[in-house]
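Researcher: Here's my situation. A collaborator sent me these components and asked whether they could plausibly form a single complex. I don't have experimental data yet, so a predicted model of the whole assembly would be a useful starting point for our discussion.
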Amino acid sequence: MSIEILMPALSPTMTEGNLTKWLVQEGQVVKAGDVIAEIETDKATMEVEAVDEGTVEKLLYKEGDNNIPVNKPIALITGEQVNQSDTAKSKKITTPKEKQETTESTITVKNNEQEEVINSKDQITMRQAIRDTIAEEMRNDKKVFILGEEVAEYQGAYKVTQGLLEEFGKKRVIDTPISEQGFAGLAVGAAFKGLIPIVEFMTFNFSMQAIDQIINSAAKTLYMSGGQINCPIVFRGPNGAAAQVAAQHSQDFSSWYSHVPGLKVVAPSTPLNAKGLLREAIRDPNPVIFLENEILYGLKGEVSTDKNFTVPFGKANVAREGKDATIVTYSIMLHKSMEAAKILKNEFDLDIEVIDLQSLRPIDAETILNSVKKTNRLVTVEESWPFASVGSEIVNIVQQNAFDYLDSPIIKVNSADVPMPYSSELEKLYLPQVDDIVKAVKEVNYI
Amino acid sequence: MKKLSKSDHLKIFSYMLKIRRFEERSAQLYGMGHIGGFCHLYIGQEAVVVGVLMTIHKNDSVVTTYRDHGHMIARGLDPKKIMAELTGRADGYSAGKGGSMHMFSKENNFYGGHGIVGAQVPIGTGIAFTHKYNGDKNICRTYIGDGAMNNGQVFEAFNLAALWELPVLYIIENNKYGMGTSVDRAAAGSDLYKRGEAFGIKGEIVDGMNVYSVIKAADKAGEYVRSGKGPYILEVQTYRYRGHSMSDPAKYRTKDELEEYKNSDPIEIVRLEILKKKLATDSELEKISKEIIEEVKAAADFALESKFPSSEELYTDVYI
């Protein structure tokens, strides 16, 4: 009887791992609790322990094998326990992990002649794109520094800051205690005094601890000082739901921060616009909220290698052109919207225009309105709660400026108006899904 | 510390008196409806800020609370522009957009004027961080009210400042009441400065009614911080004669308590010291006093003649 040892999911969003080291050999007897291998995840290198006991029958991958999918067998153990009551021929010893799709980004940024400056055909992940941009801007300007929890020695809770400590040293890559209000306020003071801090929140959920400093200090001081004191700072980190981290760790803050005059708010959807928006954010003399998405960190796509490539704020990207309805979306929901658009084309022959906002404040009302004037139908798709969301503001912009162009009421697709549940089935229900988007677009087309 | 000269003594006297006369005039303009909103007067506390600022270096930074008029005057800022701000005029330090609680002067390294209790403490710590990052020899003086000493972010800032040995001098202005709540009804434990001990931050209590005690302590503490040893805390014991803000009748304390403090008035202490040392005569001090009244009156006149911000100003300075 063989027991399969499967590639374990070692983080909420891990989809594959690299086998860096075997600590056992074929034929070796292992006890429960023995470390059998080292696996490199999207975040760190972790040790894997045996749960069952027996003799290692076969190692199915060799050291250095990369991109082994979660739940794929990596070794077989022959059980030797005489009292083992399990009669099944093989037994899975890791809990099945729901497959997280990490699709390749096929979306190009069309406006602003951005396509022309794409001269790297190498695909890199969103994580690398953000990392590289931080490094490039730190090389470019000594006033730029980064601080946050685990950004330095740990190499980033999500590996976004990997290698930065080594290159720039501890003066400019600074580990902070778990002290959001303190270090965010400290960074605001540093920005008032002329430095350019990049504040990493391990996730934006923790930014609520610091929200007074972000709004009352960073956003308002230029105004309150009659234009004397600006605050060139970037607050960045993953925003919104990851996978099964439940109510307190799955909140979307796009509408919260977009509400505030004095802040700029952007939300990248691809490695390409992540690079362009982040560079723009670091170079902007105002406070910028840069909303990343944990599930998109592994998303691969082409980027520009131009060290001055930026995506201007307030400019949306028409990710897909169409005539039958407009979807306005941003961040991870762009990808679900694109999938929905494909289904709507294939099954209902509808040509859907998909607009990726990229920048939430300032918002590109012109691109939205031009699209609605063409398609006459609008669906907004976002991960945030429905009440007073970014979509709500878009509805207002459109009703005020293109009322007569609408052929049907606008539909907003949002997460459920409840705290995020833990259970994966409920989580799926909570979040907007491709089917929800398809349904909404059909509805505005009276199908 | 170098010995105070005759001109130092007269400067101390002038600044303290100017703050008092300015605040009295502010109260008058508030009563007349020219100053609105919240207005927190500094009367009684003059020795604290004047004493501390006698030890400042030109490029040192300052950040303080919303009780900031006196802090600006002591920093040598223009009373005309301060009063113009209090009356919401275009010539004010914040162009009429900040008001009493939110005034700044970047060219003088004065970083506010913050309306949220405690918020200025991480900010001042961050300004100190910048001094260290830039490798200059300047420090940031960060003022904290006794009420803010119960606010969590103050301790987060203390921790960071001690951990990273930042050149920040924390000055607790303990005026005995956080709005209407006395310190002993708000803060557990004993002296407030001792709360720094948990982070290894040294500190001491200073008599804030006596400007000479303040100067001595601030000089020593300032040089400690400037030498790169990390933060330091001065808990300066002081007293505000007026209520928390203009709308506070201050019924939570007795008249006797107030009178007792007034009997050891900080400006009177300076006046007597000058006379004792024969640095000036009574009539010379009287002359200074009259000049200050004129200067403050001119500031009020300037403010009231200044224009209100134009309506276009509503939408400027949100972004640059």
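Model: Some features of this prediction you could bring to your collaborator: The interface with chain B takes residues 145, 171, 176-177, 179, 181-195, 212-213, 216-217, 221-230, 261-262, 264, 285-286 of chain A (CB under 8 Å). Chain A is about 25% helix and 20% strand.
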